[in-house]
Specification:
Layout (H helix, E strand, L loop, with lengths): L10 E11 L2 E11 L4 E5 L6 H8 L7 E6 L2 E2 L5 H8 L2 E4 L11 H6 L8 H5 L5 H13 L15 H14 L4 E5 L7 H18 L2 E5 L3 H7 L2 E6 L2 E6 L6 H8 L11 H7 L4 H4 L1
Parallel strand pairs: 3-8, 3-9, 6-7, 7-8
Antiparallel strand pairs: 1-2, 1-4, 4-5, 9-10
Helix pairs in contact: 5-6, 6-7
C-alpha cells in the first residue's frame, strides 16, 4: 500500500466546515490531502465529526463552507445532475449495510450500476452481460461465490458487509467512503472485513477513507491515521507515531500502553504474516 504521494491528490479538502446550528459545529475548517492508493483511517470519539466528514465528501450532508475537490473537480458547486454522475466515482459502504433486504445478493450488487444504466433498464433489472459477469467476479473476490441467489435478509452481518463492498466496487469508484464497517460485527469478522478492504485497495490502487472506532484495527490496516476531536483535526500522521500521548489528545486520559505496536505487529500490519494472527 502506498504512502503519502507528491503527485496531484485524489481528494483535497480545504477548510471543510459543517455547522448544524449556531452553537454546534460538527466540522471546523478541516483540510486534508489524500493521494491515490492510500487507506486513511478516521478515528476519534463519538460526535467528533467522522461520519459528517465522509458524508460531506459525497454531499449526503451539505457542507456549510469550504472546498471538496476530487481530481481537481469542485464537488460543492455541482448541480443535481452533475452530482449524480460524480457520485459514481465515490463508493459508499455503510455501517448498517443499506441493502434492499427482499432482493437477492446479485440484485443488490448490480444496484451499484444504477448510476450508469438507464431508468427503464434498472427498473426492469436488465443489466448488460458485462455487468453481470463483473458482479459474479466481485462476489467471488469478496468471498460470496455461490450466494448470488440468496436474499439479503438471509445473510449474516459479515456477509452483508461483503455485499456492500461488492456493490461499491461495481461503481468502479476512485474513492471508497467507509462508515464504521465493523461496528456491528464480532472481532474475527471485523478483522476479515478490514483485511478485505485493505487488500482490495492495494489490488486496485484505490483510496479509502474509513471511519472506525477500533484503534487497533485502524493501526493494523490503515496507511495513515487522522484523529478528529470536536470537529477539528488533532492528529494526522503515521501508525507508528500514534503514541499514547496522541491518543490521550484525541480521546482523553486513559492507559494506552497496550495499544502500542510491537516490531512483530508492525510486520504483520504490512501483510507478510497476516495469517499468523488471524
Amino acid at each position: 500500500m502506498s504512502h503519502l504521494s507528491k503527485a496531484t491528490p485524489l481528494l483535497q479538502l480545504s477548510g471543510l466546515t459543517k455547522q448544524y446550528r449556531a452553537d454546534f459545529t460538527a466540522l471546523n475548517e478541516v483540510s486534508l490531502s489524500i493521494p491515490h492508493g492510500q487507506v486513511l483511517a478516521l478515528i476519534g470519539p463519538s460526535g467528533a465529526g467522522k461520519s459528517t466528514l465522509i458524508r460531506c465528501v459525497n454531499r449526503l450532508v451539505e457542507p456549510s463552507a469550504g472546498s471538496v475537490q476530487l481530481k481537481g473537480q469542485e464537488l460543492t458547486q455541482l448541480g443535481s445532475t452533475a452530482l449524480r454522475k460524480t457520485r459514481r466515482r465515490l463508493g459508499m459502504i455503510f455501517q448498517e449495510y443499506a441493502l434492499v433486504e427482499r432482493l437477492s445478493v446479485m440484485e443488490n450488487v448490480l444496484s451499484g450500476r444504477l448510476g450508469y444504466v438507464g431508468f427503464w433498464q434498472s427498473w426492469r433489472r436488465r443489466y448488460p452481460a458485462t455487468d453481470i459477469e463483473r458482479a459474479f467476479a466481485l462476489l467471488e473476490r469478496v468471498g460470496l461465490a455461490g450466494f448470488e441467489n440468496q436474499r439479503a435478509d438471509a445473510l449474516s452481518g459479515g456477509q452483508r458487509q461483503r455485499v456492500g463492498i461488492a456493490r461499491a466496487l461495481m461503481q468502479e469508484p476512485d474513492l471508497l467512503l467507509v462508515d464504521e464497517p465493523t461496528a456491528s460485527l464480532d472481532p474475527k469478522t471485523s478483522r476479515q472485513i478490514m483485511r478485505l478492504l485493505n487488500e482490495i485497495c492495494t489490488e486496485r490502487q484505490l483510496s479509502a477513507i474509513i471511519n472506525i472506532h477500533d484503534v487497533e484495527l485502524a493501526k493494523r490496516y490503515a496507511d495513515r491515521i487522522v484523529g478528529l476531536k470536536a470537529g477539528r483535526v488533532v492528529y494526522d500522521g503515521t501508525v507508528e507515531n500514534l503514541s499514547a500521548e496522541v491518543l490521550t489528545t484525541i480521546y482523553g486520559e486513559e492507559d494506552w500502553s497496550d495499544t502500542q505496536p510491537t516490531a512483530f505487529a508492525s510486520s504483520v500490519v504490512r501483510g507478510q504474516f497476516e495469517q499468523v494472527v488471524a
